[in-house]
Write a structure and sequence with these properties.
This protein is of the alpha+beta class. The chain has a domain of about 90 residues: Double Stranded RNA Binding Domain (2-Layer Sandwich), CATH 3.30.160.
C-alpha cells in the first residue's frame, strides 16, 4: 500500500454538522466526509484490493467506495485529520492476514482423563439396570 498515492486519491468534502450549536453551526461546514474508490485505486495492489473488498464489504456502497465521516471537532482541519487516520487504521486492520491454525494432538493425560470419565459414566448406567436373576 503506497500511502503517498493513497492520500492523493482521497476525496474530501465538507458539509454542515447536524444537531444543536446555534448560529455558528448553521453557517460553518465543519463535518468532513472522505471517500475512497477501492477498485480504481493505483495505491493498492490487486491482492490488497480483493482483501479490502472482502473484509470491508459491509461498509462499501454500490460503487465499491468507502465513505467515512467525522464531526467530532468544531475545526474542519481537525476533522479531516481524524477521518483520514480512521481510514488508514481501518485499511491496516483489514489487510492483516490471519495466522493459520496449527492442529495439535490430544495429550496422554487428557486422553486418560476422558477414558476414565467414560468408564465412570458406563458404570453408573450399568448400576441403573435391573438385577439379573439367574
Amino acid at each position: 500500500m503506497d500511502i503517498e498515492l493513497l492520500y492523493n486519491e482521497l476525496k474530501y468534502s465538507a458539509v454542515r454538522s447536524g444537531g444543536p450549536g446555534g448560529q455558528h453551526a448553521n453557517k460553518v461546514s465543519s463535518k468532513v466526509i472522505v471517500q475512497f474508490d477501492i477498485e480504481n485505486s493505483k495505491a493498492l495492489s490487486e491482492k490488497e484490493k480483493t482483501r479490502l473488498l472482502d473484509k470491508l464489504s459491509s461498509k462499501l456502497n454500490k460503487k465499491n467506495q468507502i465513505s467515512l465521516t467525522c464531526d467530532e471537532s468544531r475545526s474542519q482541519y481537525k476533522n479531516k485529520q481524524i477521518v483520514t487516520e480512521r481510514l488508514l487504521v481501518l485499511f491496516e486492520s483489514a489487510l492483516i492476514e490471519d495466522k493459520k491454525r496449527i492442529p495439535t494432538k490430544v495429550g496422554k493425560l487428557e486422553k486418560a482423563r476422558r477414558l476414565e470419565a467414560k468408564k465412570k459414566r458406563g458404570l453408573r448406567k450399568l448400576l441403573r439396570q435391573k438385577p439379573k436373576l439367574d
